[in-house]
Amino acid sequence: MSQYKLLIDGKSVDSLDTQKTEIRNPANYNEVVDEVSVGSVEDAKRAVDSAYDALKKWSEQTPRARSQVLLKAADSLDTSDAKIAEILTREQGKTLPESLNEIRLSAAIFRYYAGLAPTISGRRVELSDPDETGFVVKLPVGVTIAITPWNSPVVLMCVKLAPALAAGNTIVVKPASSTPLADLMACELISKAGLPPGSLNVVTGKGSVVGEELITNKKVSKIAFTGETETGKRVMSLASRDVKRVSLELGGSDPMIICADADFDLAIDAALISRFRNCGQVCMSVKRLYVEKTIFQRFLDRITQRIAKIRIGNGLNPTSKMGPLHSKNQLEKIKEQVFDAVNKGSKINYGGSQPNESEFQNGYFYLPTIATNVDQNSKLVTEEVFGPVLPIFEFETIDEAIEKSNDTQFGLGSSIWTKDLDKAMKAASKIQSGTTWVNSYHEPQIDLPFGGLKESGLGKEMALEGLENYLETKAVVVNSKGKKRRWLD
Ligand code: NDP
Protein backbone atom coordinates (compact mmCIF):
# COMPACT_ATOMS: atom_id res chain seq x y z
CA MET A 1 0.00 0.00 0.00
CA SER A 2 1.18 3.53 -0.77
CA GLN A 3 2.91 5.45 2.02
CA TYR A 4 2.00 8.78 0.41
CA LYS A 5 -0.98 10.38 2.11
CA LEU A 6 -1.99 13.85 3.12
CA LEU A 7 -0.40 15.47 6.16
CA ILE A 8 -3.04 17.03 8.38
CA ASP A 9 -2.77 17.92 12.06
CA GLY A 10 0.56 16.12 12.36
CA LYS A 11 -0.83 12.85 11.00
CA SER A 12 -0.50 11.05 7.70
CA VAL A 13 -4.10 10.54 6.55
CA ASP A 14 -6.08 9.36 3.53
CA SER A 15 -8.18 11.92 1.72
CA LEU A 16 -11.80 11.95 2.92
CA ASP A 17 -13.08 10.56 -0.37
CA THR A 18 -10.18 8.00 -0.42
CA GLN A 19 -9.26 8.91 -3.98
CA LYS A 20 -5.75 7.98 -5.15
CA THR A 21 -3.69 8.60 -8.26
CA GLU A 22 -0.56 7.12 -9.80
CA ILE A 23 2.61 9.16 -10.19
CA ARG A 24 4.65 8.07 -13.22
CA ASN A 25 8.31 8.47 -14.15
CA PRO A 26 8.82 10.99 -17.00
CA ALA A 27 11.86 8.97 -18.18
CA ASN A 28 9.60 5.92 -18.57
CA TYR A 29 5.90 6.58 -18.36
CA ASN A 30 5.18 2.86 -17.99
CA GLU A 31 6.82 2.96 -14.57
CA VAL A 32 4.50 3.84 -11.69
CA VAL A 33 6.64 5.51 -9.04
CA ASP A 34 3.93 5.24 -6.40
CA GLU A 35 0.32 6.01 -5.58
CA VAL A 36 -0.71 9.08 -3.64
CA SER A 37 -3.95 10.17 -1.96
CA VAL A 38 -5.67 13.00 -3.77
CA GLY A 39 -7.07 15.71 -1.52
CA SER A 40 -10.54 17.20 -1.86
CA VAL A 41 -12.14 20.52 -0.95
CA GLU A 42 -13.15 19.01 2.42
CA ASP A 43 -9.53 17.99 3.06
CA ALA A 44 -8.40 21.53 2.25
CA LYS A 45 -10.91 22.86 4.80
CA ARG A 46 -9.77 20.52 7.57
CA ALA A 47 -6.10 21.34 6.84
CA VAL A 48 -6.82 25.07 7.14
CA ASP A 49 -8.78 24.48 10.37
CA SER A 50 -5.84 22.57 11.75
CA ALA A 51 -3.34 25.30 10.77
CA TYR A 52 -5.65 27.94 12.28
CA ASP A 53 -5.91 26.03 15.57
CA ALA A 54 -2.11 25.55 15.74
CA LEU A 55 -1.37 29.23 15.15
CA LYS A 56 -1.44 30.29 18.82
CA LYS A 57 0.83 27.49 20.00
CA TRP A 58 3.46 27.96 17.28
CA SER A 59 3.47 31.75 17.14
CA GLU A 60 3.82 32.00 20.91
CA GLN A 61 6.97 29.91 20.96
CA THR A 62 10.04 32.10 21.35
CA PRO A 63 11.95 32.86 18.13
CA ARG A 64 14.88 30.93 19.63
CA ALA A 65 12.67 27.85 20.16
CA ARG A 66 11.39 28.13 16.56
CA SER A 67 14.97 28.42 15.39
CA GLN A 68 15.86 25.13 17.11
CA VAL A 69 13.00 23.35 15.31
CA LEU A 70 14.17 24.74 11.97
CA LEU A 71 17.73 23.57 12.62
CA LYS A 72 16.47 20.09 13.44
CA ALA A 73 14.40 20.10 10.23
CA ALA A 74 17.53 21.03 8.25
CA ASP A 75 19.43 18.13 9.83
CA SER A 76 16.59 15.72 8.98
CA LEU A 77 16.58 16.86 5.34
CA ASP A 78 20.35 16.42 5.13
CA THR A 79 20.24 12.98 6.75
CA SER A 80 17.59 11.79 4.27
CA ASP A 81 18.88 13.67 1.23
CA ALA A 82 19.64 10.55 -0.83
CA LYS A 83 16.20 9.04 -0.17
CA ILE A 84 14.29 12.22 -1.03
CA ALA A 85 16.53 12.89 -4.05
CA GLU A 86 15.82 9.46 -5.50
CA ILE A 87 12.06 9.89 -5.29
CA LEU A 88 12.39 13.42 -6.69
CA THR A 89 14.32 12.15 -9.71
CA ARG A 90 11.80 9.40 -10.32
CA GLU A 91 8.73 11.65 -10.17
CA GLN A 92 10.20 14.81 -11.73
CA GLY A 93 12.83 13.52 -14.17
CA LYS A 94 15.89 15.62 -13.24
CA THR A 95 19.22 13.87 -12.70
CA LEU A 96 20.17 12.52 -9.29
CA PRO A 97 22.94 15.10 -8.69
CA GLU A 98 20.42 17.85 -9.54
CA SER A 99 17.94 16.36 -7.06
CA LEU A 100 20.61 16.07 -4.36
CA ASN A 101 21.55 19.72 -4.89
CA GLU A 102 17.91 20.65 -4.51
CA ILE A 103 17.53 18.84 -1.16
CA ARG A 104 20.82 20.24 0.17
CA LEU A 105 19.82 23.76 -0.84
CA SER A 106 16.49 23.19 0.93
CA ALA A 107 18.31 22.20 4.13
CA ALA A 108 20.60 25.24 3.78
CA ILE A 109 17.53 27.49 3.47
CA PHE A 110 16.14 26.05 6.73
CA ARG A 111 19.48 26.77 8.44
CA TYR A 112 19.55 30.30 7.06
CA TYR A 113 16.09 31.16 8.43
CA ALA A 114 16.85 29.36 11.70
CA GLY A 115 19.60 31.95 12.04
CA LEU A 116 17.27 34.84 11.23
CA ALA A 117 14.35 33.80 13.50
CA PRO A 118 15.89 35.25 16.71
CA THR A 119 16.67 38.51 14.91
CA ILE A 120 13.01 39.34 14.23
CA SER A 121 12.49 42.60 16.06
CA GLY A 122 10.69 45.91 15.97
CA ARG A 123 11.97 49.32 17.03
CA ARG A 124 11.21 52.17 19.42
CA VAL A 125 10.46 55.52 17.79
CA GLU A 126 10.72 58.99 19.36
CA LEU A 127 7.50 60.84 18.50
CA SER A 128 7.01 64.59 18.12
CA ASP A 129 4.85 64.58 21.26
CA PRO A 130 7.35 63.82 24.07
CA ASP A 131 4.57 62.36 26.24
CA GLU A 132 4.06 59.50 23.82
CA THR A 133 6.33 56.72 22.59
CA GLY A 134 5.97 54.80 19.36
CA PHE A 135 6.88 51.21 18.67
CA VAL A 136 7.06 49.26 15.44
CA VAL A 137 6.31 45.60 16.06
CA LYS A 138 6.55 42.60 13.76
CA LEU A 139 3.86 39.91 13.88
CA PRO A 140 3.26 36.67 11.99
CA VAL A 141 0.75 37.10 9.17
CA GLY A 142 -1.31 34.01 10.11
CA VAL A 143 -2.31 30.88 8.23
CA THR A 144 -0.21 30.73 5.07
CA ILE A 145 -0.78 28.72 1.90
CA ALA A 146 2.25 27.58 -0.12
CA ILE A 147 1.37 26.56 -3.67
CA THR A 148 4.32 25.05 -5.55
CA PRO A 149 5.18 23.95 -9.11
CA TRP A 150 6.68 20.69 -10.37
CA ASN A 151 10.04 21.90 -11.72
CA SER A 152 11.90 22.17 -8.40
CA PRO A 153 9.16 21.18 -5.97
CA VAL A 154 11.17 20.68 -2.78
CA VAL A 155 13.30 23.80 -2.77
CA LEU A 156 10.44 26.02 -3.94
CA MET A 157 8.39 24.66 -1.07
CA CYS A 158 11.17 25.05 1.52
CA VAL A 159 11.90 28.65 0.50
CA LYS A 160 8.34 29.38 1.65
CA LEU A 161 8.14 27.03 4.64
CA ALA A 162 11.36 28.05 6.36
CA PRO A 163 10.77 31.84 6.56
CA ALA A 164 7.04 31.39 7.21
CA LEU A 165 7.68 29.05 10.15
CA ALA A 166 10.57 31.22 11.40
CA ALA A 167 8.14 34.15 11.56
CA GLY A 168 5.59 32.12 13.57
CA ASN A 169 3.04 31.35 10.86
CA THR A 170 1.38 27.98 10.30
CA ILE A 171 1.11 26.51 6.82
CA VAL A 172 -0.82 24.41 4.35
CA VAL A 173 1.22 23.25 1.33
CA LYS A 174 -0.47 22.42 -1.99
CA PRO A 175 2.17 20.64 -4.09
CA ALA A 176 1.96 20.32 -7.88
CA SER A 177 -0.29 17.38 -8.81
CA SER A 178 2.49 15.62 -10.72
CA THR A 179 5.23 15.95 -8.03
CA PRO A 180 3.68 15.42 -4.59
CA LEU A 181 5.92 12.56 -3.40
CA ALA A 182 9.21 14.29 -2.53
CA ASP A 183 7.28 17.19 -0.99
CA LEU A 184 5.28 14.82 1.22
CA MET A 185 8.41 12.95 2.26
CA ALA A 186 10.22 16.21 3.12
CA CYS A 187 7.21 17.59 5.05
CA GLU A 188 6.88 14.42 7.14
CA LEU A 189 10.48 14.95 8.25
CA ILE A 190 10.11 18.67 8.84
CA SER A 191 6.90 18.11 10.79
CA LYS A 192 8.62 15.62 13.11
CA ALA A 193 11.39 18.11 13.91
CA GLY A 194 9.27 19.49 16.78
CA LEU A 195 6.45 21.41 15.13
CA PRO A 196 3.16 21.39 17.08
CA PRO A 197 0.55 19.28 15.21
CA GLY A 198 -1.22 21.38 12.57
CA SER A 199 1.61 23.87 12.06
CA LEU A 200 2.55 22.21 8.78
CA ASN A 201 -0.06 20.45 6.62
CA VAL A 202 0.07 19.13 3.06
CA VAL A 203 -3.01 18.71 0.88
CA THR A 204 -2.56 17.21 -2.57
CA GLY A 205 -5.11 17.66 -5.35
CA LYS A 206 -5.87 19.84 -8.32
CA GLY A 207 -4.87 23.49 -8.12
CA SER A 208 -8.13 24.60 -9.72
CA VAL A 209 -10.11 22.81 -6.98
CA VAL A 210 -8.08 22.35 -3.80
CA GLY A 211 -5.82 25.34 -4.53
CA GLU A 212 -8.76 27.68 -5.05
CA GLU A 213 -10.47 26.48 -1.84
CA LEU A 214 -7.27 27.16 0.11
CA ILE A 215 -6.85 30.64 -1.40
CA THR A 216 -10.43 31.71 -0.74
CA ASN A 217 -10.79 30.14 2.73
CA LYS A 218 -11.62 32.94 5.21
CA LYS A 219 -9.18 31.62 7.83
CA VAL A 220 -6.22 32.07 5.46
CA SER A 221 -4.20 35.30 5.58
CA LYS A 222 -1.38 34.84 3.09
CA ILE A 223 -0.68 32.98 -0.16
CA ALA A 224 2.85 32.27 -1.36
CA PHE A 225 2.68 31.03 -4.94
CA THR A 226 5.20 29.82 -7.52
CA GLY A 227 4.04 28.86 -10.99
CA GLU A 228 3.08 30.20 -14.36
CA THR A 229 2.26 33.86 -14.83
CA GLU A 230 -1.31 33.14 -15.96
CA THR A 231 -2.00 31.01 -12.86
CA GLY A 232 -0.41 33.74 -10.73
CA LYS A 233 -2.88 36.29 -12.11
CA ARG A 234 -5.76 33.99 -11.14
CA VAL A 235 -4.31 33.47 -7.65
CA MET A 236 -3.94 37.23 -7.20
CA SER A 237 -7.48 37.94 -8.29
CA LEU A 238 -8.92 35.28 -5.94
CA ALA A 239 -6.80 36.56 -3.04
CA SER A 240 -7.90 40.14 -3.69
CA ARG A 241 -11.47 39.29 -2.61
CA ASP A 242 -10.39 39.39 1.03
CA VAL A 243 -7.28 41.55 0.52
CA LYS A 244 -5.08 38.59 1.43
CA ARG A 245 -1.31 38.97 1.35
CA VAL A 246 0.17 37.49 -1.82
CA SER A 247 3.68 36.81 -3.03
CA LEU A 248 4.12 35.52 -6.56
CA GLU A 249 7.16 33.91 -8.20
CA LEU A 250 6.21 33.53 -11.86
CA GLY A 251 7.59 32.80 -15.31
CA GLY A 252 10.72 34.23 -16.89
CA SER A 253 12.46 34.68 -20.23
CA ASP A 254 15.94 35.57 -19.02
CA PRO A 255 18.35 37.19 -21.47
CA MET A 256 22.11 36.60 -21.38
CA ILE A 257 24.22 39.27 -23.12
CA ILE A 258 27.75 38.23 -24.14
CA CYS A 259 30.03 41.08 -25.24
CA ALA A 260 33.10 40.53 -27.42
CA ASP A 261 35.45 41.25 -24.49
CA ALA A 262 33.86 38.59 -22.21
CA ASP A 263 35.73 35.55 -20.92
CA PHE A 264 34.66 33.32 -23.79
CA ASP A 265 34.99 29.90 -22.13
CA LEU A 266 33.37 31.02 -18.88
CA ALA A 267 30.42 32.41 -20.82
CA ILE A 268 29.99 29.18 -22.81
CA ASP A 269 29.98 27.09 -19.62
CA ALA A 270 27.47 29.42 -18.01
CA ALA A 271 25.14 29.35 -21.01
CA LEU A 272 25.21 25.54 -21.04
CA ILE A 273 24.55 25.13 -17.31
CA SER A 274 21.93 27.84 -17.21
CA ARG A 275 19.96 26.64 -20.20
CA PHE A 276 20.18 22.85 -20.00
CA ARG A 277 20.16 21.89 -16.29
CA ASN A 278 16.86 20.33 -15.26
CA CYS A 279 16.22 19.96 -19.02
CA GLY A 280 15.72 23.72 -19.27
CA GLN A 281 12.85 23.71 -16.76
CA VAL A 282 14.15 26.40 -14.43
CA CYS A 283 12.45 29.77 -14.00
CA MET A 284 15.80 31.61 -14.06
CA SER A 285 17.28 29.66 -16.96
CA VAL A 286 18.89 31.61 -19.77
CA LYS A 287 16.12 31.64 -22.35
CA ARG A 288 17.48 34.13 -24.92
CA LEU A 289 21.16 34.51 -25.71
CA TYR A 290 22.52 37.74 -27.30
CA VAL A 291 26.10 37.52 -28.60
CA GLU A 292 28.12 40.44 -30.01
CA LYS A 293 28.49 40.21 -33.80
CA THR A 294 32.31 39.98 -33.89
CA ILE A 295 32.36 36.75 -31.85
CA PHE A 296 28.97 35.36 -32.89
CA GLN A 297 30.11 32.65 -35.35
CA ARG A 298 32.97 31.44 -33.11
CA PHE A 299 30.54 31.29 -30.17
CA LEU A 300 27.91 29.42 -32.16
CA ASP A 301 30.43 26.85 -33.43
CA ARG A 302 31.83 26.21 -29.95
CA ILE A 303 28.49 25.94 -28.14
CA THR A 304 27.15 23.62 -30.84
CA GLN A 305 30.16 21.31 -30.38
CA ARG A 306 29.65 21.32 -26.61
CA ILE A 307 25.90 20.75 -26.76
CA ALA A 308 26.41 17.65 -28.90
CA LYS A 309 28.21 16.07 -25.93
CA ILE A 310 25.33 16.44 -23.45
CA ARG A 311 24.28 12.89 -22.55
CA ILE A 312 20.57 12.57 -22.12
CA GLY A 313 18.96 9.70 -20.22
CA ASN A 314 17.07 8.50 -17.18
CA GLY A 315 18.01 10.78 -14.27
CA LEU A 316 18.90 7.76 -12.11
CA ASN A 317 21.61 6.73 -14.58
CA PRO A 318 24.96 8.18 -13.36
CA THR A 319 26.06 8.98 -16.92
CA SER A 320 23.01 11.15 -17.66
CA LYS A 321 23.66 14.88 -17.74
CA MET A 322 20.13 15.85 -18.80
CA GLY A 323 16.89 14.05 -18.00
CA PRO A 324 13.58 14.15 -19.87
CA LEU A 325 11.00 16.91 -19.93
CA HIS A 326 8.59 16.50 -17.05
CA SER A 327 5.38 15.64 -18.89
CA LYS A 328 3.63 15.09 -22.18
CA ASN A 329 2.23 18.62 -21.90
CA GLN A 330 5.72 20.08 -21.61
CA LEU A 331 6.97 18.01 -24.54
CA GLU A 332 4.07 19.10 -26.74
CA LYS A 333 4.58 22.74 -25.79
CA ILE A 334 8.31 22.67 -26.67
CA LYS A 335 7.60 20.90 -29.97
CA GLU A 336 5.02 23.55 -30.82
CA GLN A 337 7.38 26.45 -29.94
CA VAL A 338 10.18 25.02 -32.11
CA PHE A 339 7.75 24.26 -34.96
CA ASP A 340 6.49 27.84 -34.83
CA ALA A 341 10.07 29.24 -34.96
CA VAL A 342 10.95 27.05 -37.94
CA ASN A 343 7.76 28.11 -39.71
CA LYS A 344 8.82 31.74 -39.23
CA GLY A 345 12.23 31.12 -40.85
CA SER A 346 14.37 29.95 -37.96
CA LYS A 347 17.37 27.68 -38.51
CA ILE A 348 17.86 24.73 -36.15
CA ASN A 349 21.63 24.44 -35.66
CA TYR A 350 21.38 21.41 -33.39
CA GLY A 351 18.59 19.18 -32.08
CA GLY A 352 15.05 20.33 -32.77
CA SER A 353 13.45 16.92 -32.25
CA GLN A 354 13.05 13.97 -29.91
CA PRO A 355 15.93 11.46 -29.91
CA ASN A 356 15.39 8.41 -32.16
CA GLU A 357 17.06 5.70 -30.06
CA SER A 358 14.74 3.01 -28.68
CA GLU A 359 15.82 3.62 -25.05
CA PHE A 360 14.11 7.04 -25.18
CA GLN A 361 10.81 5.95 -26.71
CA ASN A 362 8.85 5.65 -23.45
CA GLY A 363 9.98 8.97 -21.99
CA TYR A 364 9.46 12.67 -22.67
CA PHE A 365 12.99 13.22 -23.97
CA TYR A 366 13.92 16.12 -26.25
CA LEU A 367 17.33 16.87 -27.72
CA PRO A 368 19.21 19.93 -26.51
CA THR A 369 18.49 22.44 -29.23
CA ILE A 370 20.04 25.60 -30.66
CA ALA A 371 18.12 27.92 -32.98
CA THR A 372 19.33 30.98 -34.92
CA ASN A 373 17.67 33.53 -37.24
CA VAL A 374 14.76 33.47 -34.82
CA ASP A 375 11.99 35.95 -35.63
CA GLN A 376 11.16 38.38 -32.78
CA ASN A 377 7.50 37.37 -33.10
CA SER A 378 8.10 33.66 -32.80
CA LYS A 379 6.98 31.80 -29.68
CA LEU A 380 10.62 31.11 -28.78
CA VAL A 381 10.83 34.85 -28.03
CA THR A 382 7.34 35.89 -27.00
CA GLU A 383 6.61 32.96 -24.63
CA GLU A 384 8.49 31.41 -21.75
CA VAL A 385 10.45 28.44 -23.16
CA PHE A 386 10.47 25.83 -20.40
CA GLY A 387 12.68 23.21 -22.04
CA PRO A 388 16.14 22.62 -23.56
CA VAL A 389 15.94 25.08 -26.44
CA LEU A 390 18.30 28.04 -26.78
CA PRO A 391 17.64 30.77 -29.36
CA ILE A 392 20.85 32.73 -30.12
CA PHE A 393 20.82 36.25 -31.56
CA GLU A 394 23.62 38.58 -32.62
CA PHE A 395 23.88 42.26 -31.68
CA GLU A 396 26.08 45.17 -32.71
CA THR A 397 25.68 47.65 -29.83
CA ILE A 398 25.01 47.09 -26.14
CA ASP A 399 21.99 49.41 -26.32
CA GLU A 400 20.47 47.19 -29.01
CA ALA A 401 21.03 44.09 -26.82
CA ILE A 402 19.44 45.78 -23.81
CA GLU A 403 16.46 46.98 -25.84
CA LYS A 404 15.81 43.45 -27.14
CA SER A 405 16.34 41.98 -23.66
CA ASN A 406 13.65 44.27 -22.28
CA ASP A 407 11.18 43.60 -25.08
CA THR A 408 9.16 41.05 -23.06
CA GLN A 409 6.47 40.98 -20.39
CA PHE A 410 8.87 39.00 -18.16
CA GLY A 411 11.53 40.42 -15.86
CA LEU A 412 12.95 37.64 -13.70
CA GLY A 413 16.72 37.35 -14.25
CA SER A 414 19.39 38.43 -16.74
CA SER A 415 23.15 38.38 -17.13
CA ILE A 416 25.80 40.46 -18.82
CA TRP A 417 29.23 39.17 -19.74
CA THR A 418 32.07 41.68 -20.24
CA LYS A 419 35.45 42.50 -18.65
CA ASP A 420 34.42 46.18 -18.60
CA LEU A 421 32.72 46.47 -15.20
CA ASP A 422 31.61 50.03 -15.83
CA LYS A 423 29.74 48.87 -18.95
CA ALA A 424 28.33 45.94 -16.95
CA MET A 425 27.02 48.13 -14.13
CA LYS A 426 25.41 50.59 -16.56
CA ALA A 427 23.75 47.69 -18.39
CA ALA A 428 22.61 46.12 -15.11
CA SER A 429 20.79 49.32 -14.18
CA LYS A 430 18.96 49.36 -17.54
CA ILE A 431 17.97 45.70 -17.88
CA GLN A 432 14.48 45.22 -16.45
CA SER A 433 14.88 42.15 -14.24
CA GLY A 434 14.80 41.28 -10.54
CA THR A 435 18.40 40.02 -10.66
CA THR A 436 21.29 40.73 -13.03
CA TRP A 437 24.34 38.50 -12.82
CA VAL A 438 27.62 40.03 -14.05
CA ASN A 439 30.04 37.42 -15.42
CA SER A 440 28.18 34.83 -13.38
CA TYR A 441 25.48 32.37 -14.20
CA HIS A 442 21.86 32.30 -13.21
CA GLU A 443 22.00 30.63 -9.80
CA PRO A 444 19.99 31.43 -6.65
CA GLN A 445 21.78 32.94 -3.64
CA ILE A 446 20.16 32.43 -0.25
CA ASP A 447 21.47 35.76 1.07
CA LEU A 448 20.08 37.84 -1.81
CA PRO A 449 16.41 38.60 -2.51
CA PHE A 450 15.08 36.78 -5.56
CA GLY A 451 11.95 37.69 -7.46
CA GLY A 452 10.69 39.15 -10.68
CA LEU A 453 9.82 42.56 -12.06
CA LYS A 454 6.95 43.09 -14.51
CA GLU A 455 4.86 39.91 -15.00
CA SER A 456 7.53 37.68 -13.42
CA GLY A 457 6.24 38.23 -9.93
CA LEU A 458 5.49 40.23 -6.85
CA GLY A 459 7.55 40.19 -3.65
CA LYS A 460 10.86 38.48 -2.97
CA GLU A 461 12.01 35.11 -1.69
CA MET A 462 15.33 34.31 0.03
CA ALA A 463 17.33 36.72 2.22
CA LEU A 464 15.83 39.14 4.78
CA GLU A 465 13.18 40.20 2.26
CA GLY A 466 11.99 36.58 2.15
CA LEU A 467 11.32 36.74 5.89
CA GLU A 468 9.53 40.10 5.60
CA ASN A 469 7.08 38.36 3.25
CA TYR A 470 5.70 36.48 6.26
CA LEU A 471 5.56 39.35 8.79
CA GLU A 472 3.02 42.09 9.35
CA THR A 473 4.29 45.48 10.47
CA LYS A 474 2.23 47.15 13.18
CA ALA A 475 2.58 50.50 14.92
CA VAL A 476 1.88 50.86 18.66
CA VAL A 477 1.58 54.24 20.33
CA VAL A 478 1.93 54.43 24.12
CA ASN A 479 0.80 57.44 26.11
CA SER A 480 3.64 56.84 28.52
CA LYS A 481 3.10 59.77 30.86
CA GLY A 482 -0.67 59.46 31.23
CA LYS A 483 -1.26 62.78 29.46
CA LYS A 484 -4.95 63.74 29.25
CA ARG A 485 -6.39 64.87 25.93
CA ARG A 486 -9.58 66.89 25.55
CA TRP A 487 -11.57 67.15 22.34
CA LEU A 488 -11.20 70.53 20.54
CA ASP A 489 -9.17 71.90 23.43
P1 NDP B 1 1.33 26.15 -12.75
O1 NDP B 1 0.98 27.58 -12.65
O2 NDP B 1 0.64 25.33 -13.76
O3 NDP B 1 1.10 25.40 -11.36
C1 NDP B 1 1.74 25.82 -10.18
C2 NDP B 1 0.92 25.38 -8.98
O4 NDP B 1 -0.32 26.07 -8.99
C3 NDP B 1 0.57 23.89 -8.98
O5 NDP B 1 0.58 23.41 -7.66
C4 NDP B 1 -0.84 23.89 -9.55
O6 NDP B 1 -1.59 22.75 -9.19
C5 NDP B 1 -1.39 25.14 -8.90
N1 NDP B 1 -2.55 25.71 -9.56
C6 NDP B 1 -2.95 25.56 -10.85
N2 NDP B 1 -4.10 26.25 -11.07
C7 NDP B 1 -4.42 26.83 -9.91
C8 NDP B 1 -5.50 27.66 -9.49
N3 NDP B 1 -6.48 28.04 -10.32
N4 NDP B 1 -5.52 28.07 -8.20
C9 NDP B 1 -4.55 27.72 -7.34
N5 NDP B 1 -3.52 26.93 -7.67
C10 NDP B 1 -3.44 26.50 -8.94
O7 NDP B 1 2.91 26.11 -12.96
P2 NDP B 1 3.83 24.85 -13.27
O8 NDP B 1 3.63 23.83 -12.21
O9 NDP B 1 3.65 24.49 -14.69
O10 NDP B 1 5.30 25.46 -13.02
C11 NDP B 1 6.11 26.00 -14.00
C12 NDP B 1 6.06 27.52 -13.93
O11 NDP B 1 6.57 27.97 -12.67
C13 NDP B 1 6.94 28.18 -14.97
O12 NDP B 1 6.24 29.25 -15.55
C14 NDP B 1 8.12 28.71 -14.17
O13 NDP B 1 8.78 29.80 -14.73
C15 NDP B 1 7.45 29.07 -12.87
N6 NDP B 1 8.45 29.14 -11.82
C16 NDP B 1 8.80 30.38 -11.31
C17 NDP B 1 9.81 30.50 -10.37
C18 NDP B 1 10.21 31.83 -9.81
O14 NDP B 1 10.89 31.85 -8.78
N7 NDP B 1 9.83 32.95 -10.40
C19 NDP B 1 10.53 29.32 -9.89
C20 NDP B 1 10.11 28.09 -10.51
C21 NDP B 1 9.09 28.01 -11.43
P3 NDP B 1 -1.76 21.52 -10.21
O15 NDP B 1 -0.41 20.93 -10.37
O16 NDP B 1 -2.74 20.66 -9.55
O17 NDP B 1 -2.28 22.12 -11.51
Strand elements, count: 20
Report the C-alpha radius of gyration, rounded: 24 Å
Q: Roughly what percent helix?
A: 25-40%
Q: Which CATH class of the largest domain applies here?
A: Alpha Beta
pLDDT below 50 for ≥5 consecutive residues: which ranges? none
CATH architectural group of the largest domain: 3-Layer(aba) Sandwich
User: What can be said about the biggest beta sheet?
Assistant: 7 strands, mixed
Describe the structure.
The protein is α/β, with parallel strands linked by helices and 489 residues long. The protein has 2 domains: 6-250 and 452-475, 3-Layer(aba) Sandwich (Aldehyde Dehydrogenase, Chain A, domain 1), CATH 3.40.605; 254-438, Aldehyde Dehydrogenase, Chain A, domain 2 (3-Layer(aba) Sandwich). It is built from 15 helices and 20 strands. It has helices at residues 41-59, 63-79, 81-92, 96-116, 153-166, 181-191, 207-216, 229-240, 264-276, 293-307, 328-343, 379-382, 398-406, 421-430, 463-468, and strands spanning 6-8, 11-13, 20-25, 28-37, 123-126, 132-140, 143-147, 170-174, 200-202, 220-226, 245-249, 254-258, 286-292, 347-350, 369-372, 389-395, 413-417, 435-438, 457-458, 471-479. Helix 5 links the parallel strand 7 (143-147) and strand 8 (170-174). It is globular. NADPH dihydro-nicotinamide-adenine-dinucleotide phosphate binds next to helix 7 and helix 8.
Tags for this model:
single chain, 15 helices, alpha/beta, 489 residues, Aldehyde Dehydrogenase, Chain A, domain 2, Aldehyde Dehydrogenase, Chain A, domain 1, seven-stranded mixed β-sheet, 20 strands
